Amino acid sequence: MTPTVVVLGDVVTDVVARLRGPIAQGSDTGARIARRPGGSAANVSAWLATLGVPTVLVARVGDDREGAEQLDVLRRAGVRTRVAVDPERPTGTVVALVAPAGGRSMVTDRGANLALAVEDVPDDEFRAGHHLHLSGYALLDRGPRAAARRALALAREAGMTVSVDPSSAEPLTRVGPGRFLEWTRGVHTCLANLDEARALTGLLPAQAAARALTASYAEVVVTLGARGALRAAAGSPDIIRVPAPPVSVVDTTGAGDAFSAGFLAARGSGAPALAALRGGAALAARAVALTGARP
Length: 295
What we know:
Elements: E1 5-8, E2 12-19, E3 31-38, H1 40-50, E4 55-62, H2 65-77, E5 80-86, E6 92-98, E7 104-109, E8 131-135, H3 137-140, H4 142-158, E9 161-165, H5 169-175, H6 177-184, E10 189-193, H7 194-201, H8 206-213, E11 219-223, E12 229-233, E13 239-242, H9 255-268, H10 273-288
Parallel strand pairs: 1-4, 1-8, 2-6, 4-5, 8-9, 9-10, 10-11
Antiparallel strand pairs: 2-3, 6-7, 11-12, 12-13
Helix pairs in contact: 1-9, 5-7, 7-8, 9-10
């Protein structure tokens, strides 16, 4: 049986602006703008559910229209939600500026996500045989950090497997790579992009960074965008690498979340590392062909 995946982290509304050209400083830049459901944890949950994986999302939204819409979309996608509703803070919002070539920059107001509390973490979801996937955003700010660390402790006590996504290089650097590694040491799988792997290790080559991270994690996956992904394992000198499938890129928002879902779904079903990397790369290719971060 495929294990239930408990995903903890952010839910946001993405405002995706697909720019028609470079930003005209102090003037107007043409764009196509759309609102889409987002948030790293919510995205991973939605992609997992699309693959038929039983999924529970632990998060926090505002008591507003955006929060209600988010929960409705997630439930209709097949995600079971254990999401608290915040009476004071709004649902988080991210403005994603997507360049004509598909690269994106994000401006973030995390809203209710920053108030995720220990009391929001449902102890009864942490059981032997289940898997915890932790979005690193929940560790990178003081507000939700205690909840994230509580989830890690519950998962360890229950004997669950655990994966973590470091989430974003700049906040990692700000909070301190050493602290993040300390909080997550012993987690089985780290799913990082190249910038995050470099921020955590100070090493530029992807293979070197991945190998260095195996001092903290049993398995390390580093995604490389259009160059695919690689995987290193503690105690092994081998690096496994897969290319990215050829695809016409529309929007890279959420590609890493889709990759994580594809990889975790394959691993949860017993697939070897190479097959799991291919599964992650295939789902990421689906994601970049869409506007927004969800299936």
